Amino acid sequence: MSFRSIKYFIKEGVKSFALNGLMSMASVVTVSLCLVLFGVYLLFSMNLNYAASQVEAGYEIQLYIEETADSDDIQAVKSALMSIENVNSIEFVSKGEALKEWNEKFGGDAEFLEGLEDDNPLRDSFKVSFKDLSLTEETISQIEKIKMVAKVTNNQVVVDKLVGITTNVQKVSFWLMVFFAVISVFIISNTIRITVFARRREVNIMKFVGATDWFISCPFVIEGIIIGFIGALTAMLIVSQAYGYFISEVGLVIEENINIYDLSSVFWVLFGSLIGMGVVLGASGSGVSLRKHLYV
Amino acid sequence: MIFFNNVTKQYDNGTIALDNINFFIDKGEFVFIVGSSGAGKSTITKLILCEEKPTSGTILINGIDVGGLKHREMPYYRRQLGMVFQDFRLLPNKTVYDNIAFAMQVRGATNREIRRAVPNVLSMVGLSGKAKVRPHELSGGEQQRVALARAMVNNPPVLIADEPTGNLDPATADGIMQLLEDINKRGTTVLTVTHAKDIVNKMKKRVVEISNGKIIRDEVGGYCCEL
């Protein structure tokens, strides 16, 4: 393929993009709509995985020991815990320390905690983290069988709920994205069809002088790619602005518990994905049209 | 060079355009195919250009079985044919030079090859001074010369001319036919499909006459059919 051909392909592609003004704009708008959803989906997934890894990394259960237990019993519980295969680390929290933690947590409002130092109603406990989180339930049932263990708290339910909600959001945005991708391909293919029709004379002449299908369709594919590319740039602008706003307004609230990515750390991944997806949509849109209207 | 062997073409609507046609055109020949409208002349061009496939029979062009060509092989096959049409089929937004260069570009010719070949072929058709002009600024005869230059720029072994003088006045038409004869003298096989009586009579070449899809006359001679 000579340089002259490449120049020719690009020139023709740009030219018909410009000539098709309104249709090109319509295609760009649908593509960017689709890609905005794709961007949202992407950001959701990335942050969900990030959050999940944080939750997993900090995941631990707390087990409380019977009030009647003495220090020998506590020692026994500790060694029993250590003998469980899946246990990663153990941290003993005495009831005094637990009370202190409460005091810190509730700060000045903790009037209801006053006077409890002498008659501490809290229990001694262990914080336990696991090696393999998928075995959580089995390990917990093992722990529950240990003598003098009163209760095991497990925030698995909360985690499950969080994951459940976010996967639902993910699913909805994924299917919306697929829906808009189909529409984008359809609209792009329509735009390209108009171009092919407007240039059917030229296409015909090209066939007679022995142009390959590839040579004939290249400018049209480039036109589709231009549509996808501009759509992707628009979408990138919208998504990055929206995400920046989201972080500054809503992100702070979340960030106390879970970190989310800031814009600069996801920018290039987002940019690359949107451009890539835009180009794929544009090219497949024109491909659909060319198959129908060129190869007769 | 061009061989039609028991070729029948029936269109989807049931019309039989060609009915068991046989003819052979040797390398370097100049042949007219004549006949009234609807006789099947244009079907012959379509079959040669591989726009249509024969219903039965074989067509061999330059040793290639045209009916058996796959879609992706067609462009390479068509590069062996030069083609000229009644309506010239030039690209209106390209200059004369670019119109001709385009036919080379499509085949992947280099810039150097293009720069060498285009002026040559332009001088052959007598349009050296018109390289930068657009087709609509030319007369009909000049446009057909450009089309001929485009057809010949890749030195095809066969030139198919479909009603090449259909849109031209008699004097201009004579000029084009003269050019076709010159091309033929250089060794290119020329097949001209026409119903222009005067031209056929003047040229005294081999004439194949078609009527109702059958060949009714195939002889070297000056006269044309009853049209």
How would you portray this structure in words?
The complex is a heterodimer of chains A (296) and B (227). Chain A has 296 residues and is of the alpha+beta class. Chain A folds into 2 domains: 3-55 and 161-293, no CATH class; 63-155, Alpha-Beta Plaits (2-Layer Sandwich). Helix content of chain A is 72%, strand content 8%. Chain A has helices at residues 3-19, 21-57, 71-82, 95-106, 136-144, 156-198, 200-208, 213-255, 263-293; strands at 61-65, 87-93, 125-130, 149-153. Chain A has a 4-stranded antiparallel β-sheet. In chain A, helix 8 runs antiparallel to helix 9 (263-293). The radius of gyration of chain A is 31 Å and the shape is elongated. Chain B has 227 residues and is α/β, with parallel strands linked by helices. In chain B, helix 3 packs parallel to helix 5 (140-152). In chain B, strand 7 (158-162), helix 6 and strand 8 form a beta-alpha-beta unit. In chain B, the strands form 2 sheets. Chain B has a 6-stranded mixed β-sheet with strand order 6-7-8-3-9-10, with helices on both faces. Chain B folds into 2 domains: 1-80 and 156-227, 3-Layer(aba) Sandwich (Rossmann fold), CATH 3.40.50.300; 90-154, no CATH class. Chain B contains 7 helices and 10 strands. Helix content of chain B is 32%, strand content 27%. Chain B has helices at 41-48, 74-78, 96-105, 111-124, 140-152, 170-185, 197-203, and strands spanning 2-10, 16-25, 30-34, 56-61, 64-65, 81-85, 158-162, 189-194, 206-211, 214-220. The interface between A and B is medium-sized, with 19 and 22 residues.
In short:
Chain A has 296 residues and is an alpha+beta fold. In chain A, 72% of the residues lie in helices and 8% in strands. The relative contact order of chain B is 0.20.
Write the layout of secondary structure elements.
The complex is a heterodimer of chains A (296) and B (227).
Chain A: H1 3-19, H2 21-57, E1 61-65, H3 71-82, E2 87-93, H4 95-106, E3 125-130, H5 136-144, E4 149-153, H6 156-198, H7 200-208, H8 213-255, H9 263-293
Helix pairs in contact in A: 1-8, 2-6, 2-8, 2-9, 6-8, 6-9, 8-9
Chain B: E1 2-10, E2 16-25, E3 30-34, H1 41-48, E4 56-61, E5 64-65, H2 74-78, E6 81-85, H3 96-105, H4 111-124, H5 140-152, E7 158-162, H6 170-185, E8 189-194, H7 197-203, E9 206-211, E10 214-220
Parallel strand pairs in B: 3-8, 3-9, 6-7, 7-8
Antiparallel strand pairs in B: 1-2, 1-4, 4-5, 9-10
Helix pairs in contact in B: 3-4, 3-5, 4-5, 5-6
